[in-house]
Specification:
alpha+beta
């Protein structure tokens, strides 16, 4: 009988036009559905993701679900998908779930991290995954700005223009800066959900704060006024990764 499985994924988003299927474009969902269809004799298999990453955005902890036939046990399905999928899209594990389980609706929190390369010359070995930012960086000001974010807020001022969600209140539980190694650091955000371009717009505003172009309280002002004209430029996608989805 058909059954539903949870599929944990990691991918390098550089060559993908995002998660969601788009005609004529290479997407993560499209590649996964194509591989599953091959395993089902050409019959279409619909995949649902926990979140829709943008073009160029990476994932270490994306989660999807799909209803499949009973031809393969979970370990066999895992091996088959690894054989069929490209090297920049890897299945981490396959788990059985209840047929009503939904990777997006069941999620209680997600964590995104934006990586910065603050070294003077830039590290070519992280250039696909980190924004090179060899500019003045006021760490204390950035930390003050980050401290204003945790809590339940209307993030309309940080939503992208393509955001179609009407309820833009999100509960942010974590907003911090961490040093990975000298020259490389990450800005980490955890919340019960994120809006279109929300993290990239937050990072762009924080980089303005870092360079002294805005004061740390600019974050609070944008939250209070929902005025997108006050935020910084949208940070490029390649520094962003979906790190974890919690259920």
């Amino acid at each position: 009988m058909p059954r539903r499985v949870r599929i944990d994924l990691a991918y390098d988003g550089t060559e993908f036009d995002g998660w969601q299927v788009q005609p004529g474009r290479r997407t993560v969902q499209g590649e996964l559905e194509r591989a599953l269809a091959r395993l089902h004799g050409g019959s279409p298999v619909r995949v649902r993701g926990a979140g829709r990453t943008d073009a160029g955005v990476h994932a270490r902890g994306q989660v999807a679900d799909a209803r499949i036939g009973d031809r393969f046990a979970d370990p066999e399905l895992h091996r088959a998908l690894l054989a069929l999928l490209p090297g920049d899209l890897r299945v981490q594990r396959v788990l059985p779930v209840d047929d009503a389980w939904n990777a997006r609706r069941a999620a209680v929190s997600k964590t995104y991290a934006y990586t910065l390369d603050r070294s003077r010359s830039g590290d070519p070995f992280v250039s696909r995954y980190a924004l090179h930012h060899p500019h003045p960086f006021d760490e204390a000001a950035v930390d003050l700005a980050l401290a204003q974010l945790p809590g339940r807020h209307d993030f309309s001022g940080f939503a992208g223009s393509a955001c179609e969600v009407t309820d833009r209140v999100r509960h942010l539980t974590e907003a911090r800066r961490e040093v990975v190694r000298p020259g490389i650091e990450r800005i980490v955000f955890s919340a019960d959900g994120f809006l279109n371009h929300m993290v990239r717009n937050l990072v762009g505003t924080l980089l303005d704060v870092a360079r002294g172009r805005s004061s740390p309280d600019r974050i609070g002002t944008i939250l209070a006024t929902a005025d997108p004209s006050l935020r910084g430029a949208t940070a490029p996608p390649h520094g962003l990764a979906l790190e974890r989805v919690v259920y």
